[in-house]
Amino acid sequence: MNQTLFAQARELFPGGVNSPVRAFGAVGGTPRFITRAEGAHVWDADGVRRIDYVSSWGAIILGHADPGVVDVVRSAASLGTSYGAPTPAEIALAERIRAAIPSVERMRFTSSGTEAAMSAVRLARAHTGRTKILKFAGCYHGHIDALLTAAGSGVATMGLPGSAGVSPEATRDTLVAPYNDLGAVNELFDRYGDELAAVLVEPVAANMGLVLPAPGFLELLREQASAHEALLVFDEVITGFRVAPGGAQERYGVIPDLTCLGKVIGGGLPVGAFGGRADIMAQVAPDGPMYQAGTLSGNPLAMVAGAATLGRLTDRSVFDRLEQQTARLATGLAEAIDASPHAGRASVATLASLLTLFWTPQPPTSFAEAQAGDDEAFARFFHGLLDRGISLPPSPYEAWFVTLAHGEDEIEATLAAAGQALA
Ligand code: KE4
Fold this sequence. Notes:
Layout: H1 2-10, E1 34-38, E2 41-44, E3 49-52, H2 67-77, H3 88-100, E4 106-110, H4 113-128, E5 132-137, H5 153-157, H6 168-172, E6 174-178, H7 182-192, E7 196-201, H8 217-227, E8 231-235, H9 247-252, E9 258-262, E10 272-276, H10 278-281, H11 300-311, H12 316-338, E11 347-351, E12 354-358, H13 367-371, H14 375-386, E13 390-391, E14 400-401, H15 408-422
Parallel strand pairs: 3-13, 5-6, 5-7, 7-8, 8-9
Antiparallel strand pairs: 1-2, 2-3, 4-10, 9-10, 11-12, 12-14
Helix pairs in contact: 2-11, 3-11, 7-8, 12-15, 14-15
C-alpha cells in the first residue's frame, strides 16, 4: 500500500512529500505512509507497527496521541478552529513559556520554526540597524533565504551547498563559521563584530546529527555578542522544553537576547515562537516598526495542545526519566556496536532525550566531521531497523527523539533490533 500511495503522492507533491527529508532520499526505498500513531508507536499504510524515533522531528515528547492533548484539542475544536483574533489560550501558553524561560519576557507566536527564525533575524536587524548575521555550518533554522547556506537537516541530507532560487543578495550578509570553532568565532568578530546584527546558533546542534557545544563555545558567543552589541539568538526549536525545562539556556547557563521556539510548544500542532528582551520585542509591530504577522499565529487548537503538553513538563522528574531512558538506549547501542563487526566504525552521541548513532569512529564535533560519516552504512542500518519494527529518522543528519512513551519494553526491543541489524 505504501508503494501505491507513494506513486499517487508523486503525482501531487515534489518528491511525493511535503517536506524533503521524509522522501527517504538518503536511505532509498519507499517512505512509509503513517495512518495512525499512539504512544511510542506508529502504524504505516500496510498496518505495520513500529517504534518511532522521529516523533514528528521532536514535536512529540509525551508520546503520540497523548489522551490529555487529544482531549483538549477535541474540546477546543468544538469551539471553533481559528478566530483570527486574540484568545485567552495564547495567554495561557505564553505564561507557561515565560515561567520556564525567563529570558523570553515578550514573545510572538508563529506557525512554524522557520517563521520564528526569520522573524528573529529581521528583528535583530531592526533593533541594531545592522545587516550581517553569523550562523554555523550544519545548523538549520528553517528554509529562510538568508540562512540556507551550509544548512543542516534536509539541505545536508540532499548534499546541497544551499538552495537554488536564493539570490546572492539574500546571503551576502550571512557569515558562516564551523560549529564549535572558537578561533573562527573570534576572527569573525574581530573583523565583522561591529557590523553584526546577530549570532544565530542551535545551542545544541541537532541538524547535523546531535553535536554538543564544546566547552566555552556558547559562553564565547555570549561574550563576543555583548562586546560588539550584536544580539545572541538561540534557536531552541528542538532544544526548548527538551534538553531541560528551560531549554539549553537553562542547561548551559548562557542567556540569549532572543530565543526561537517550536515543536514541543505546539504539542504536535503547527506552532513556532520568537521572543526575548522586552526592549527588543518593543520593535515588533504594532508596537514598533518591524513588521511580522500570521493568519494562524496563536491558533487556539495549537495553543491548547501546547499548554497541555508544557503542563506535563513542569515536573522535573519527567526530564530525569526521559534522560534515563535515553541513556539506557545510548549505552546499549554503543555496546551493540562494540559487539558487532562494526566496532570502531560507529559511535553514539546523546543529551537528554536526544540521540544520534553516527557512522563515524567518534561522535562528530562539527558539520565537516559529520559529513565524513559512512552514509551507505547508515542507509543499511536504517533499513535493518525499519525491517525489524523500528522507525528512525531517514537521514544521518538528524537526531532520534525519545518520548515519555518510550518505556523499558521499547528500549529493549530497539536494542535487540539494533544488535541484529549490526550483526
Ligand atoms: P519548521 O519551519 O520546520 O517548523 O522549523 C524549522 C527549524 C528551525 N530550527 C531548528 C533547530 C529546526 O530543527 C527546525 C526544523 N527541524 C527539522 C528536523 N531537523 C524539520 C524536519 C523537516 O524539515 O521536515
